[in-house]
């Protein structure tokens, strides 16, 4: 009982540690933070204010949307109230008979705020109206109209940019949860799956990978995040993928591959992270986007292969079964890349047949009826 609980606790701690040490999460977010910024560097974000507004969270965008309009209405409401008070238009100032106000029916701060709101939003109920006798009021209504138009354009642009962000298109492209290592076309390969959940194509799709690990140079320098290029391809090549259905991408493990020195019993003891990138252009919006994911050693299964997911119906239509998208089956695979290329029959999983549990074993007593020629 206590041994089982201890094992569960250790597994949870190991999982939390792997999450902390992962640079790129499974959904593509980068797990990195920047510190010790100089104070002057923060002004760079204000200089590039458009990108700053587009990248902030939705809750802050909505807060700025509400605050910018409400604050502008209130500030101009104070100015309209000041103009009415300076001209003696307010009821408590006892204006004389025949007095012409700058703005009709402004009786206090509340009505001045309502007039500011109606002016900037071009509502125009008709209860309050500007008279042409005050040049300052004419200038103020022009200024408020221009500033209101600028706020409208800016906030609408920010919201539309966030809605049409290429990051949202990347949400409909998914990778398999695990990577597998198995023989393919006479070589040992590391394979992953990627699928486009929309029927619209990704034009000019290219996929590549980076292996991140800590290395020591001959000079004694320790490189915390050493990057090694990992080439992925499909049977038709690695450029301009025809991304209409899920694809299985594979990396050939040869002598130039960083996976060549690994084996089935040492893979999980390694410390590295395989980051996979897919770049493409959305067909419907012509916007470029990048999809990222990563695999740690515990997410790479040696001696397994993906289940098939594409079939053809009797009507001639192709069908994709996403229930098998990340499912794998064991296959005969060498213990290491060196064994695969140099030692025949050295397999991690046996090539022997397996009993099919779906069949029932029966005894046949009668001799078969064999026709002799």
From TrEMBL:
Keywords: Cell membrane, Ion channel, Ion transport, Membrane, Potassium, Potassium transport, Transmembrane, Transmembrane helix, Transport, Voltage-gated channel. Coiled coil: none annotated. GO terms for molecular function: ATP-activated inward rectifier potassium channel activity. Residues 24-166 form the Potassium channel inwardly rectifying transmembrane domain. Residues 173-340 form the Inward rectifier potassium channel C-terminal domain. The keyword Transmembrane helix applies. The record marks 152 as: Role in the control of polyamine-mediated channel gating and in the blocking by intracellular magnesium. GO terms for cellular component: monoatomic ion channel complex; plasma membrane. It comes from the Eukaryota. The keyword Membrane applies. It is found in: Cell membrane; Membrane. GO terms for biological process: nervous system development; potassium ion import across plasma membrane; regulation of monoatomic ion transmembrane transport. It catalyses: K(+)(in) = K(+)(out). The chain crosses the membrane at residues 60-83, 137-160. It is a multi-pass membrane protein. Its main location: membrane. Residues 350-373 are annotated as: Disordered. Belongs to the inward rectifier-type potassium channel (TC 1.A.2.1) family. PANTHER family: ATP-SENSITIVE INWARD RECTIFIER POTASSIUM CHANNEL 1, INWARD RECTIFIER POTASSIUM CHANNEL. This is ATP-sensitive inward rectifier potassium channel 1-like. It comes from Xyrichtys novacula (Pearly razorfish). The lineage of its organism: Eukaryota, Metazoa, Chordata, Craniata, Vertebrata.
């Amino acid at each position: 009982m206590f041994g089982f609980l201890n094992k569960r606790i250790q597994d949870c701690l190991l999982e939390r540690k792997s999450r902390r040490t992962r640079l790129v999460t499974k959904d593509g977010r980068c797990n990195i933070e920047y510190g010790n910024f100089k104070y002057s560097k923060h002004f760079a974000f204000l200089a590039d204010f458009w990108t700053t507004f587009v990248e902030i969270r939705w809750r802050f965008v909505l807060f700025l949307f509400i605050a910018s309009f409400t604050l502008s209405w209130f500030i101009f409401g104070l100015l309209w109230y000041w103009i009415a008070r300076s001209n003696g238009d307010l009821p408590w100032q006892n204006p004389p008979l025949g007095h012409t106000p700058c703005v009709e029916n402004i009786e206090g701060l509340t009505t001045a705020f309502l007039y500011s709101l109606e002016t900037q939003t071009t509502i125009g109920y008709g209860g309050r109206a500007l008279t042409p006798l005050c040049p300052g009021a004419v200038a103020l209504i022009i200024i408020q109209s221009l500033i209101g138009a600028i706020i409208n354009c800016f906030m609408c642009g920010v919201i539309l940019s966030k809605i049409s962000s290429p990051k949202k298109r990347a949400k409909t492209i998914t990778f398999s949860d695990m990577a597998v290592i198995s023989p393919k076309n006479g070589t040992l390969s590391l394979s992953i799956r990627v699928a486009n959940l929309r029927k619209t194509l990704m034009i000019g799709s290219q996929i590549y990978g980076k292996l991140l690990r800590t290395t020591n140079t001959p000079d004694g320098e320790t490189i915390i995040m050493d990057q090694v290029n990992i080439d992925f391809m499909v049977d038709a090549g690695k450029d301009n993928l025809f991304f209409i259905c899920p694809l299985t991408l594979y990396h050939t493990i040869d002598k130039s591959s960083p996976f060549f020195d690994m084996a089935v019993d040492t893979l999980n003891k390694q410390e590295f992270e395989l980051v996979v990138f897919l770049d493409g252009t959305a067909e419907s919006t012509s916007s470029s986007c990048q999809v990222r994911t990563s695999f740690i050693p515990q997410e790479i299964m040696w001696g397994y292969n993906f289940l098939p997911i594409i079939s053809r119906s009797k009507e001639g239509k192709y069908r994709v079964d996403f229930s098998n998208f990340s499912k794998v089956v064991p296959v005969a695979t060498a213990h290491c890349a060196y064994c695969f290329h140099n030692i025949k029959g050295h397999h991690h999983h046996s090539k022997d047949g397996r009993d099919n549990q779906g069949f029932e074993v029966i005894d046949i007593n009668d001799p078969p009826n064999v026709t002799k020629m």
